[in-house]
Amino acid sequence: MARINFCGSAAHAVNRRGFLSTLATAGAAAFAADMTRVQALALPEVAQDLRRNQKRCILLWLAGGASQMETFDPKPGAVTGGPFQSIQTSTPGVRICELMPKMARRFKDTCIIRSLNTRNGDHGGGSRMMMRGRAGESNLDYPDLGAVLARELGQENSSVPDYVSFYFATEGRMFAPGTPGFLGARYGSMDLYTSQIPENMRRAGISDQDHQARNELRGLISGQFERGRLSDSIDSHRQAYQRMRGIMAHERLFDINREPQAIRDRYGPTLFGQQCLAARRLVEAGVPFVRVGRAWWDSHGQNFETHQEMVPELDHVMATLLDDLEQRGLLESTLVITLAEFGRTPNINSQLGRDHFASAWSSTLSGCGIRGGSVYGRTDETGNRVADGEVNAARLFATIYRALGINHQKNYYVGVRPVPLTDPGTEPIREVLA
């Protein structure tokens, strides 16, 4: 067995590399036997370091379908190109729409996937597919990305939520609600529709003593009901309730007014900016998955006016979020995704709009596990079809899972039926991964 050099001081017992190195060279059992080292995990500085390196994900959900032509795959000069020009990014030869100058300058951490062909141009069906990575089945309710990451990346005894979703707009809300599917309520989303701070979490004047007494009474009644009953649903409900009690003690995580004014100013006054700041606070505290919905991109008419208003906001907030995560040492362990249910048609309709289009559109991945400053796939000169590197929803999700250190080929079980995490035979896009 490899010798472990340790001075005996708890303060020097563990750092991240030492922790992983010891496991690799001496084996988990030998490490667990050294109780002095195990106790050191409780030190605040060690807990902070381990939390910093926990994988997590922020999804910027561009609800309604943002145009790839006015964001990450411009075609200036083409008959389908529209009025905007392209600009050079920090990667030679890679250009994006002129409406995104901040992301062009800090492209070093981002990969654009320009070759999505997901074949579903319906808001509802497309949203479900792009939140789950696969088409649905009538007899099986698949979990969405947030629920899977809550299951795979969440900490068993954590008192922070595993899956938070901000979606204040009324448009499109019904199309892609968070769903834990067959994983059960334990991995369901905390949906925030009207307030950035979860409502109905306060004890409303009840003392700590009364609150504890009520919890004990509830536990007694629940225990009597559960006795002799073995049910995944009952267990899932109990775990969800216990998690909610822990969340009540962490209401402050949602309050961006606790941030310095300079930080709030950087994100800007828009709702999208404020929610992305809240998302950063949440992942920093250990929340594995946060979705921030920005609606409504469904520009069947006046596409260019719509995007001239919304794309600069996306550009500013996304660049600020990536900067903030990087400055806090979190970007290497946080994957930031931009995604929608589909893109928009290259052809411009009679209302100067672009319609639904799922045959050749774009997404971006930034940060954790991603080869930054890169592009994967290519569309033709007019943007009407994928010319190289076609990617479907399953392959995109396999890439997301691999970037986060999750085995995309693993099986879940519904009864005795194995359900693979991604469609059988799916492989991640290795050129995208760091």
Brief summary of the model shown:
34% of the residues lie in helices and 16% in strands. With 434 residues, the chain is an alpha/beta fold.
Secondary structure layout:
Layout: H1 16-26, H2 28-33, H3 35-40, H4 44-52, E1 56-63, E2 86-88, E3 95-97, H5 101-105, E4 110-116, H6 123-132, H7 145-153, E5 163-166, E6 190-192, H8 208-226, H9 232-248, H10 261-267, H11 271-284, E7 289-295, H12 303-327, E8 334-339, E9 343-344, E10 356-357, E11 361-367, E12 374-376, E13 378-379, E14 386-388, H13 393-403, E15 411-414, E16 417-420
Parallel strand pairs: 1-7, 1-8, 4-12, 5-6, 5-7
Antiparallel strand pairs: 2-3, 4-11, 8-11, 9-10, 13-14, 15-16
Helix pairs in contact: 11-12
CATH class of the largest domain: Alpha Beta
Net shape: globular
**Main beta sheet strand tally, sense and closure:** 8 strands, mixed
What do we call the CATH topology of the largest domain? Answer: Alkaline Phosphatase, subunit A
How many domains comprise the coordinates? 2
Major beta sheet, strand line-up? 6-5-7-1-8-11-4-12
Content-based structural category:
alpha/beta
Average pLDDT metric: 86
Radius of gyration: 23 Å
The residue ranges in which pLDDT falls below 50 over 5 or more consecutive positions are 1-42
Number of distinct beta strands? 16
